[in-house]
Specification:
By secondary structure, the chain is α/β, with parallel strands linked by helices. It has a single domain, classed as Alpha-Beta Barrel (TIM Barrel), CATH 3.20.20.70. 45% of the residues lie in helices and 16% in strands. The protein contains ten helices and eight strands. It has an eight-stranded parallel barrel with strand order 1-2-3-4-5-6-7-8, surrounded by six helices. The chain is globular, with a radius of gyration of 17 Å. The relative contact order is 0.14. The site of cytidine-5'-monophosphate (C5P) has 14 residues, from strand 8.
Length: 240
């Protein structure tokens, strides 16, 4: 059972290319949630300096979804570690050698730089892909089986966990055991709009299913008062 306090379970997705807004939100939310998630859009626009501008007291989930030959991914991990990410994503479909190279690079670089080792998360099958899409790229479906296959590979090769959708939590928890991190987007409080998320769970439901960390964007960033929305979510988690 994950004993992490409710506040630290929540990473807020800062899906904006607007650096000033991202920095403002990150500062305002730093005492309220566990951290922020920044992804490829933000990183491509603002780079490491942009990441430093939005990280302070809170945690950092660097969602860059690396996928390349092992040597290149190892180099990308070495470059990312000094930014101090708590969580860093790698495509599990990159294969065993690439995943092992990423794990080794994270451990070595964190030791050399004297920073905490980021926890590496595998990306399994993007939720934008269905069974036909897998066939189109020559992968064996159905999606649920490919998710399990890639989660098992991530675990075998030493990754700390995977990102998964709400409806995959229970099966992956059974498959991968209690210590494998499950980080889950597609989370909606009962009082928030679903937006374009098709299959959602509330924060409390996701934790009850076995999620370790929740990625929540628009219910917080799109609220009239983002701090109040985040506080409400954390309070609800504490009561569940
Ligand atoms: O605003 P919202 O809460 O829907 O944001 C969810 C975040 O999680 C976004 O950054 C989105 O890209 C990410 N994500 C997702 N579904 C996935 C993988 C990542 O919503 N399957």
């Amino acid at each position: 059972m994950n004993q992490t306090p409710p506040k630290d379970r929540v990473f807020v997705a800062l899906d904006t290319p607007d650096l000033a807004r991202a920095a403002h939100l990150a500062t305002a939310l730093s005492e309220v949630v566990g951290g922020i998630k920044v992804g490829k859009e933000f990183f491509t626009a603002h780079g490491p300096a942009g990441v430093r501008a939005v990280t302070g007291a809170g945690g950092l989930f660097l969602d860059l979804k690396f996928h390349d030959i092992p040597n290149t991914v190892a180099g990308a991990v070495r470059a990312a570690v000094p930014l101090g990410p708590d969580l860093l994503t790698i495509h599990a479909a990159g294969g065993p050698a690439m995943l092992r190279a990423a794990v080794a690079a994270a451990a070595e670089t964190a030791g050399d730089a004297d920073v905490p080792r980021p926890r590496l998360l595998g990306i399994t099958v993007l939720t934008s892909l269905d069974d036909d899409d897998l066939t189109a790229v020559g992968q064996h479906g159905p999606v649920t089986e490919q998710v399990r296959r890639l989660a098992a590979l991530a675990q075998e090769t030493g990754l700390d966990g995977v990102v998964c959708s709400p409806h995959e939590i229970a099966a992956l928890r059974r498959l991968c055991g209690p210590d494998f991190l499950l980080v889950v987007p597609g989370i909606r409080p009962a009082w928030a709009a679903a937006d374009d998320q098709k299959r959602v769970l509330t924060p409390a439901q996701a934790l009850a299913e076995g999620a370790d960390y929740l990625v929540i964007g628009r219910p917080i960033t799109g609220a009239a008062d983002p701090v109040a929305a985040a506080q409400r979510i954390v309070a609800e988690l504490g009561e569940s």
